[in-house]
What we know:
The chain is built from 18 helices and no strands. By secondary structure, the protein is mainly α.
Amino acid sequence: MKQILDKWNQVSLVKQIVIGLVVGVILALTIPQAGQPVALLGSLFVGALKAVAPVLVLFLVMAAIAQHESGQRTNMKTIIALYLIGTFLAGLTGVVASFLFPVGFTLVDSPEGFTAPGGVSEVLQTLLLNVVDNPVHAIANANYIGILAWALLLGFALRSAPVTTKTMISNLSDAISKIVGWVIKFAPLGILGLVYESISTNGLSALVSYGKLLGVLLGCMAFVAFVINPLIVFMTIKQNPYPLVFRCVKESGITAFFTRSSAANIPVNMKVCENLGLNKDSYSVSIPLGATINMAGAAVTISVLTLATVHTLGIEVDFLTALILSVLAAVCACGASGVAGGSLLLIPLACSLFGIPNEIAMQVVGVGFIIGILQDSFETALNSSTDALFTAAAEFKEWRKEGKEIHLRKIG
């Protein structure tokens, strides 16, 4: 048995995940009912990631700020700029694609128990209230804006603390990171359970009538992932970006696709950055920040579904108004993590730009929940893999300035 485990551990994590994925598909197709307990593996894996992520973010960011020496580079300005540019261009991509390939759909009843925000001011208000949330409440409810705020404040307050105190915090951070490593080792089993549950429970039959809409949505996300993002990275590091892009999609995007949670994927992205040899002071802050404001996939969803509603209702829209939509989509996407229901519940806000009643807009949210089987998975994969991608690009830019060689082909 020990020899089998040793050989299994010699296989790369990505290959292990692929094996788990294949086994999950086979089980879902052959024993969709009898093997139902298999789905528990997926729930346990996602639950473990969600449990450890808030504590990990708090201690990593707090330790990084407390240990930070004045004069050390953290690349945060570049990373935030890349996050905002990427999110805006993703929204713009959704707008352009919706004009090139206009699609409509059949409206459905809106889901019960959901309330859309009333405007951009309400989204920003929610974000500000999350900043001043009680720290215990923020951790318990995975409010990453609040967790980041407290981690930064505690980190700055501890910069004048004794070395022994800083060492203890650093040791706690390392211990939590080790626990994360143990959790990630169970990713193949977790992915097996998630794939099994998705295929055996949902199937794909519900998506057939919305095929064209899904095609535009997923096509936009693929375009952002493999054209827009590589172009941004190329402009940043002046080298072929695709080895790095494929590395981030492979190691971060695949896991995020199945967990469908940017928060749950924070530990995975931390590991990707560590494997790339990036500065811990940078990625310990930029990765949790990216999980809250770097929302390219959400910007695509908001733009495409809003303009699909416009086409369905036969509303005439000029490109300038649609361009304003892409800006609004980017702003809304940055606030998506602070609103219950994520990006879908921000669609009524965008629809209000065209005078579409909230009753109709909420029916569009219902459509979003139907296609969410795939839409949400691709959206999360794009959002989360881009966090690691832009964090790496910002640091590689500094390496280039310092004359260090960046061997992207070796890391791809």
